[in-house]
Amino acid sequence: MPKNYNISVIKGDGIGVEIVDQAIKVLTAVGKKFDLNFDYKEYLMGGCAIDATGNPLPQETIDGVLDSDACLFGAIGGPKWDNLERELRPESGLLRFRKEMGVFANLRPATVYDELVDASSLKPEVIKGVDIMVVRELIGGIYFGEPKGKTETKGWNTMVYTVEEIERIAHVAFKLAMKRDKRVCSIDKANVLDVSQLWRDTAERIAKEYPEVELTHMYVDNCAMQLIANPRQFDVILTGNIFGDILSDEASMLSGSIGLLPSASTGLKTAVYEPIHGSAPDIAGLGIANPIATIASASMMLRYSLDQEAAADAIDNAIKKTMADGYRTGDLAAYDCKEKVNCTQMGDIIAQNI
User: Fold this and answer.
1) Which end of the chain is flanked by fewer CB atoms within 10 Å, N or C?
2) Catalytic site includes residue 249
3) Annotation says 131 is catalytic
4) Last residue of some domain: 255, 286, 312?
């Protein structure tokens, strides 16, 4: 008997529709191989939801995602909605979505494919073999802290973390490290911020529960430099919301293309899997988007939410084979490309390689 999973799907705006369709294609292929059945239900969020309902995050979407085993997400936003009031913009819906889902842990791997080592702006000897997992706290910190506000002459936000919030994200990082190289580097600004000193103290206490894992600390400004100077020194990076937002984007560029890297946002209620890039409205509808990040996000969904390790490995291996065989979308066509393909073709090839 096949195993059945209910997957909520939010394609969103821009290239979201194109890239999610390719991920579903690959999931269908892996489902046939491993006797898995995926029941997909689509929901609206972002600009398309604003156009249809006037709300960037309809209640139907919240309820539907919470009722699913996991959510596969594309991308939202675009210049069409930039002039709306802040609370009505697609990005506001995304922040509220994360809070409603309770997805407090954002997992963002930064992996360099051997075949694309020349695609990075850094020297090959610096980035070859890089395999980093950034664990970012996602629903606390300065983006959600109170008080906040703005007058004509002043704006203010408050960076707040509780011990409970730090403990739960630290456990995620240490558990991931146990399955990797057993090293966690916690990033803060404890030399000037009281909230960071609480972060550091809590991380050290949680580390005692994982004696096999080495815990180190680094200030965020030094980490920003070290990611460029010596990225291979990192295994798991543990950090808060705003620091993680910046550092994970920096780490993503080690690979040479933002179109390659997936992410997972997990919590107590459900998990959301999405590429780290945006909706790219400038290329939407042209069929040239790179779907690999979304397909790799589907792999993370299989691994972390559905406990289907073999199926996840099959997708990862299919992506690696596709890269090794020299197939490239336009963003990577300058690097060891044997055949340039479009978005749909890339999805077809990866599915065939399952």
Assistant:
1) N
2) yes
3) no
4) 255
